[in-house]
Amino acid sequence: MATVKRDNRLTSSQSFLCVGFAGIFSKTVTSPLEVVKILSQVGTFHCKRGLMRSFPLIYQHEGLRGFWKGNSVSCLRLFPYSAIHLGTYIIHLNMDELGRISQWKAIVTGGLAGIAAALLTYPLEVVETRLIAQNCRESLYQGVLHTLSSINRQEGFLALYRGFSLTVLGAIPFSIGCYVVFINLDKLWQENHFHFTSLQNFINGCLAAGVAQTLSFPFETIKRKMQAQSPRLPHCGGVDVHFTGTVDCFRQVIKTKGVLSLWSGIAANTVKIIPYYGLLFSCFEMCKQFFLYQNGYTVSPLSYKLKPGVDQSLGPQELQEVKRYLRNRKIQAQNSSMGNRWQT
């Protein structure tokens, strides 16, 4: 069974910044594909003719900025989501004394941490869906705060959590998909997981994300429809079916559109996986290299070459204490040497 090893050479705040920067950059670059995916899930007219026709239709009706609708709130949601996710101690409680955790425990406890983070940031996800579903040239919602207050005032507070149960239900097939991929990685590469290269780990992440998201995609589709639907919006928010609840939404979608429509937008989502996780992985590694250099573990912020004589098992604060101790001892030795010279 594969295991995950924490890198204790980064502080919690540095890990948070690495995740935040990598997430914002990768989300912004792949935003057009995310917009097409969500519009396909909601069922708006933009995506009735397939993936490739969606892009010119969005550009024709909303212009270039239509591809970045909701990106600001998506990036804004990333920071509290990451903070809550990293701050959840479930994973650490299941680690052994060496700071390692088995892959299946990392997936399960990571899923629980994700649900906890989603619970507190879910209203921002609803806002993102509403901003993407509307026409940015004829917008009813003006920014994050206006959207939050409008939904709360017109539809009630619970509308900000419409479809949240599907996040919990979708976490089950998502975790199963990740687990199935990761337990077979050793067989796939025909070598021990400890010897995986960065490229192999990137491919592993793309495979796990592809399988997991495909399994959980129907829950994601229904959730987006529930988030977008509102009787107070034109065409009920652009949703292609009308429903009264979660079960009825599943029923109406299958009845009117067919079972395969539960995977509407899967093409855009699949295309997005490689650039998204590629940018996420590379940006995170770039930030990590910078902080490892800043903490004194590497010789350069552009490489992983370790600094000679540095104990890599020490945490950042411990390493600084060792450096401070050695520096003070050197100063004392110099002062002692100068004192002996004066005496002679």
Automatic annotation (TrEMBL):
Protein location: Membrane
Keywords: Membrane, Repeat, Transmembrane, Transmembrane helix, Transport
GO BP: transmembrane transport
TM stretches of this protein: 159-182, 202-222
The organism's place on the tree of life at top rank: Eukaryota
Positions annotated as Solcar repeat: 14-95, 105-188, 196-290
InterPro entries according to UniProt: MCP, MCP_dom_sf, MCP_transmembrane
UniProt cross-references to Pfam families, sorted A to Z: Mito_carr
Protein family membership: Belongs to the mitochondrial carrier (TC 2.A.29) family.
Membrane topology recorded in Swiss-Prot or TrEMBL: Multi-pass membrane protein
Name of the protein: Solute carrier family 25 member 43
Keyword Signal: no
SUPFAM superfamilies on file: Mitochondrial carrier
A cellular component term, taken from the record's GO annotations: membrane
